[in-house]
Amino acid sequence: MDLTVVAYVIYLLVSIGLTVWVARTLSRNGRIFIADVLQGNEKLADAVNQLLVVGFYLVNIGFVTLYLRSSEEIASARVLFEALSVKLGVVLLVLGFMHLLNVWVLNRMRRRGIMERRHTPPVAPQGWTAPAGA
Asked: How wide is the angle at C-alpha 61 spanned by C-alphas 60 and 62, nearest 5°?
């Protein structure tokens, strides 16, 4: 069997496996941030979370498949491991970048929600509250 094909199969299995693992981790832990931003609306939080996961899969698996092609001839096990290490290293860096981007976006959304709640008056402007101690 051609070692290039072996490299492709190993690369796809590891890259897609890592993508699924990171997406599930982001989905499970990011849902808490989304629910907080959406003020406890669980159905909407689940829907937004699922949409983010689908987008994450599309971007990362798209990158993995576009980055599959190799121009070098893989003639030995050493070259196979070197090619895989470069390809998987780049995939890990892209996954890490996407993870940080997702965390940053979720944190911005959460902070914006907290700021909006702080600016909302506890009583409607036309309402009246009795003074404390009266």
From this structure: 90
